[in-house]
Amino acid sequence: MDKSEELRRRILELVEQYAREAHVPRPFVPGRDFVNYGGRVFGAEELRGATEAVLDFFLTAGRFAQRFESDFAAYFKVPGAFLVNSGSSANLLALAALTSPKLGERRLKPGDEVITVAAGFPTTLAPIIQNRLVPVLVDVGVGDYTAIPERIAGAVGPRTRAVMMAHTMGNPFDLDAVMAAVRKHDLWLVEDNCDSLGSTYRGRLTGTFGALSTFSFYPAHHITMGEGGCVIAAGERAEELGRIVRSLRDWGRDCWCAGGKSNTCGQRFSQRFGSLPLGFDHKYVYSHVGYNLKLTDLQAAIGCAQWPKLPDFIARRKANFAYLRKALAPYEDRLVLPFATPGSDPAWFGFVITVREGAGFSRNDLQKHLEERKVETRSLFAGNLLRHPAFLDIEHRVCGGLENTERIAAGTFFVGVYPGLDQARLAYMAEAFRDFFKR
Fold it and tell me: How many CB atoms lie within 10 A of CB 12?
């Protein structure tokens, strides 16, 4: 072993020792410590991985990104996975890919319609607008918070070409209804799976139904890279769509060589593209108006350390959800508690609560009480996106009214179920609810 290898070994040992000393979870003190809605759960493995990436000093996506993409694709049994810098970028790339000229008559064109919901996160809706498409908005159920199945078929019009929706809070939308519409009308499906890594519908992983699916690795999600996201493609055109996603992610280039590689195809200087001269360097040919949305290898290294922990993280989310469901059951006369869509097994992102009409108190009353006791709460994302300044004047169509979406905007919030919540924190959260109802 040469000196640099010995130094590397010692550095990594010290980093692991530091992690065990500096990042030991401290005992929960009620009233002093927050019960967070979400957050990163990590150990020495993540710090070691990040340090390895720093010592490599490759900086952009490298060996750790390739390893994570390979493991992720194998998990979903798809040809490839494409890491990006955020789940929001993943959504942008997935929908932009469907506008590619390479798809011929199936490409989405300006003015085409995409079915989605208004009760969601803005970066599920934003790519539709950014690509000059028209959102068709349907209402969601209160309790499952996913698109009302009967509304999907009714939302299809002459220019409808795609569906793009999230599995809200890890709860799969009715994929029977959605896939029936997709097949009948030859639509594209983009699954926003950012909150739902590990959720299943009729025993099949969400993220494998759509032509394209997206994921987020923000600290509140099922695993984290700090920032980071991913796109996968499934189905008959998976490899073609994957190449388009890679191109759009990597400046729009036509070349598919990995970072730092050249002439993988063996035809770098022997092809013709557009009106360029014959033999123009393929590494600098651009077939799309693209972006640079790659992530760093440091982020990917953290993801590689998180990846083996996913089954445990999912199990703990489900157990925490079940604990809260039981603890809050006595208040169902005043609260709508969340439930799984039929046929699904959610890897829950959060525990969503809607205050019933006539409960005698408002959402704000309950949220204020919980926040004063340092129990973090969050609104169900944007409530109704159409009421936000950014979306007031967008071109859109509503199918069937948005009564439940309006109700959610006024009366819904969520608390956490993430793996960092131990029994002491869960018990404290349940006690905070009990105190409110005693009052």
Answer: 17
HSE-up of 209 (CA within 13 Å, CB side)?
Answer: 31
Catalytic residues, by residue number, are 221
- The one-character DSSP state at 170 is G
For the segment(s) 310-438, the CATH number from 3.30.1130.10, 3.90.1150.10, 3.40.50.1380, 3.40.50.970 is: 3.90.1150.10
The two tokens of residue 314 are 């999912």
- The string of DSSP codes covering 400-417 is S--HHHHHHHHHEEEEE-
Which pLDDT value is given to residue 429?
Answer: 98
Strand 412-416, strand 350-355: pairing: antiparallel
Question: Where exactly are the structural domains of the chain?
Answer: 54-306, 310-438
132, β-bridge pairs: none
What is the sign, positive or negative, of the torsion defined by CA atoms of 94, 98, 99, 101?
positive
Number of neighbouring beta carbons within 10 Å of residue 54: 15
The tokens for 297 are 């290898």
Distances (CA, A) of 70 to 3, 59, 235, 240, 430: 32, 19, 18, 18, 41
Rounded to whole angstroms, the Cα distance separating 111 from 113 reads: 6
DSSP 8-state class, residue 367: H
Q: For residue range 207-256, list pLDDT tens digits in order.
A: 999 999 999 999 999 999 999 999 999 999 999 999 999 999 999 998 87
Q: How far is CA 150 from the centre of its chain?
A: 25
Provide the residue type at 38 as one letter. Answer: G
The length of the chain, given as a count of residues = 439
C-alpha 292/C-alpha 57 separation (Å) is: 20
pLDDT for residue 136: 98
Contact of 297 with 65, CB cutoff 8 Å:
yes
Q: Which two tokens stand for residue 338?
A: 């969340």
Q: What is the reported pLDDT for 253?
A: 93
Token pair of 31 as six digits = 């009233």
Give the pLDDT confidence score for residue 259 in this predicted structure: 66
At 439 the pLDDT is 82
Report, as ranges of residue numbers, the positions in the chain whose pLDDT lies below 70. 1, 259
